[in-house]
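tool_call: predict_structure(chain=1)
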Amino acid sequence: MEPFVALVVGFCSARLAGLLGVSALDAWHPALCVGLAVMFLFTALAHFHPALRADLIGMVPPRLPRPDLLVTLTGGLEIAGAIGLLVPTLSRWAAAGLVLLMIGMFPANVSAARRQVAQGDPLGRRTVFQAVYVGAATLVAL
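tool_result:
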């Protein structure tokens, strides 16, 4: 739920800034880029925060090697994607990469829900939120 709040607050704040005269944000596309960037920076921090990192490592399916390295790698990719979203010439490519990343990481959410590890939403809610995030990033990519 927290990433969704970050997305909505980031988008609405950027859109409001656009309406108040920040020309670079005076459209839905750049405001959505900002909202997604805020969301991905927020979620990326969990990959490195000591109190949250262990939960993310526990979400990685057991058959995958080096879950700690995978969590670090995905956190780094989320940060890179968030930065790319804020660069107009890169935003579409960054969004497309983030769509692929979210699709690739979703099995970890399924595995975690089935194994009942880590905190978070049940699988049904996770799926709905993931669809929203993928849809928002797809809108930016197209």
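agent: The longest helix spans residues 91-115. Proceeding to next step.
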